[in-house]
Amino acid sequence: MITKRIIPCLDVKDGRVVKGVNFKDLNDVSSPVELASYYSGSGADELVFYDITASAEGRKLFTDILCETASKVFIPLTVGGGINTVEDFDRVLKCGADKVSVNSGALRNPGLIDEAARLYGDQCVVLSADISLIDGVYRVFSRGGRDNTGREAISWIKECVERGAGEIVVNSIDTDGVKKGFDIPMLRAVCEAVNVPVIASGGAGCMQDFLDLFDQVPDIDAGLAASVFHFGEIDIRDLKREMDAHGVPARII
Q1: Residue 99 falls inside a structural domain
Q2: Tens of pLDDT along 60-90?
Q3: How much is the pLDDT for 56?
Q4: How far apart (Å, rounded) are the C-alpha atoms in residues 15 and 33?
């Protein structure tokens, strides 16, 4: 049986890990290098590193802090932020990333997914979709959740998978940082639409939220969270023991 992954997320701004609510009101947390080193040795299955203001500021992802962070990580590392060309893919991979996450860059140029998948393989291309429910329709947002693209989210995700995205990170803007649980209806809709791994992001507040996620959305592959891990509200090893006790397959070290 395939184990369910637990993935901490480092939202990085100006070289520091930050966290907010609903993608707003960002507060300083810690050094990405220190946190990456901690998570790499504390039971995390993978790690996600987002330079969250690169797209909004129209710049490339900072590679110096990424290289230093990657050097401390001995689990798969996904990196995103300011990814607009295959040259950006190449640069980030050479810094130590295992997978590259694309969001706004794909919205501007969907062909980027085709090209990157052809060059680096589907398994390297991760679509990150920032989604909010607007007037009863799931809409995709760009530039770190700032701009409503007007695109319907499920059809956009399906298109990207058809183009070659090998994994989807579904970021719920509505539940981000609220700590009231994952957006179960949205995640079900995504899992029903595609046949690639789907990672749930946004809303984790306690261990039960992860248990509910894996119980209510059996096809979900992973749960991603930030502040509950950063501030010690949930210990990853304890979470995995709880998952195992409830019949959820987990990699326990």
Answers
A1: yes
A2: 667 888 999 999 999 999 999 989 999 999 9
A3: 64
A4: 9
Concerning whether 130 is annotated as a catalytic residue, the answer is: yes
Tell me what pLDDT residue 63 has: 81
Where does the pLDDT of residue 92 fall: very low under 50, low under 70, confident under 90, or very high at 90 and above? very high
pLDDT at 22: 60
In the set 51, 130, 176, 221, the catalytic residue is: 130
Phi, psi dihedrals of residue 193, rounded to the nearest 5°: -90, -25
Q: What is the CATH number of the domain that holds 181?
A: 3.20.20.70
Structure tokens, 226: 């930030």
Any catalytic annotation for residue 183?
no
pTM of the model: 0.92
Instruction: Look at the chain and report how many structural domains it folds into.
Output: 1
